[in-house]
Amino acid sequence: MLGRSLRLSGGHGSIGSLLSYFCKDWNRRSIASQVLPTLPVICETNSLNSYSTGDDYADVNWDELGFGLTQTDYMYVMRCSEDEKFSHGELTPYGNIQLSPSSGVLNYGQGLLEGLKAYRKQDGKLLLFRPEENALRMQIGAERLCMHAPSVDQFVNAVKQTVLANKRWIPPPGKGSLYIRPLLIGSGPLLGIAPAPDYTFLVYASPVGNYFKEGRAPINLLAEDRMHRSSPGGTGGIKTITNYAPVLKAQCEAKAKGFTDVLFLDSVKKANIEEASACNIFIIKDNVISTPDTQGTILSGVTRKSVIDIARTFGYQVEERPIPIEELMAADEVFCTGTAIVIAPVSSITYLGRRVHYNVGELSQKLYANLTGIQMGLLEDKMGWTVELE
Q: What is the rounded radius of gyration, in angstroms, for the C-alpha atoms of the chain?
């Protein structure tokens, strides 16, 4: 892989020291018009032959692809200081970045992440799913954390460039997707608690398969009554990096007991369901679909939003409201949604030692088929959600 074969100066993988290596035949490549303006042309003996046609695949066993990090070729980087806006970014070979020990993200957790996917259609074209929604959510999170954020156009353009530069890592149709991880971090140094003096926006990608080891099999959740994911007035409603470390202990304990994941309750009454470690939850009772309203403690997922819209086009009543744990335990059907998991049916939920089993009904399967059909270009996108890349 090109990213692995490059030699980086400085020994620490500084982004500033990364070189982009391109051969003189680059202009003949179909992707050149998309990425060339941001990249210096430097001849190098390591050719991009495996990348030149745009149709070749990386050396990956696509049939055994799980949800783990696979290093790809390129990432996108853009920086700005506290007194300016983001303006110009560039693709660089994937590699380590250099941060001050006193950077805002390392000392005070000033950072946001996003997640979205690119799919390969049967005709070879590439699709993104609602990238502008991720861009807007990052802007909302940046305002909460006193950070500068890229514009929607800058965000989407960075994602497009990252996908096109890593095209050979996008799985064949039906074998998975390219998971894209945008990051916004306070990279500038400081000692006292304050917004960082400069910021870095970074996008990298990895091919992925199913999120859970069960694949598409129904999952089993443990409702956690001691530890909580977020609290009113906190940051549960934005996608800050600090939301995820607090769930690890509860998640590890649940997995040690054989559960797939943890479902968290509200931190005030400890009576209403909120979300799992990295996904939203829906219940179905008497053909009515319900999901917890976000209210600042629950992340407003892009998949969650899409599922609500699709269900309503099918004629279903969808309610966003507080849902007591007792109502969950009496539901007819339960499923979770998220970019990584898409739609995962729930087989059982255990709460205070009581385990309730659910049937995997037709509705969650219908929603899954419709959503993934749009995402993969198998169904007509009447919603205008997908962005096609040539």
A: 22
For residue 201, give the H/E element and its range. Answer: strand 198-208
Residue type, 205: A
- From the DSSP assignment, how many helices (H) and strands (E) are in the chain? 10, 17
State whether residue 277 is helix, strand or coil.
coil
Reported as a single tens digit per residue, the pLDDT across 164-184 is 999 999 999 999 999 999 999
- pLDDT by residue (tens digit) across 276-285? 999 999 999 9
Collapsing DSSP states into helix, strand and coil, what is residue 169? helix
- Quickly count: other Cβ atoms within 10 Å of residue 84's Cβ: 11
Positions annotated as catalytic residues are 239
Distance CA 386, CA 372 (A): 11
Using CA atoms, how far apart are residues 29 and 47, in angstroms rounded to an integer? Answer: 13
Neighbour-count burial for 287-315, b at 16+ CB within 10 Å, e otherwise: eebbbbebebbbbbbbbbebbbebbeeee
Whole-model pTM: value is: 0.85
What is the Cα–Cα distance from 98 to 112, expressed in whole angstroms?
Answer: 18
Q: Which among 70, 75, 49, 52 has a CA at the least distance from the CA of 60?
A: 70
Phi, psi (rounded to 5 degrees) for 350:
-115, 130
Give the position of tokens 């390969």.
120
User: In sequence order, what are the beta bridge partners of 92?
Assistant: 75
Enclosing H/E stretch for 72: none
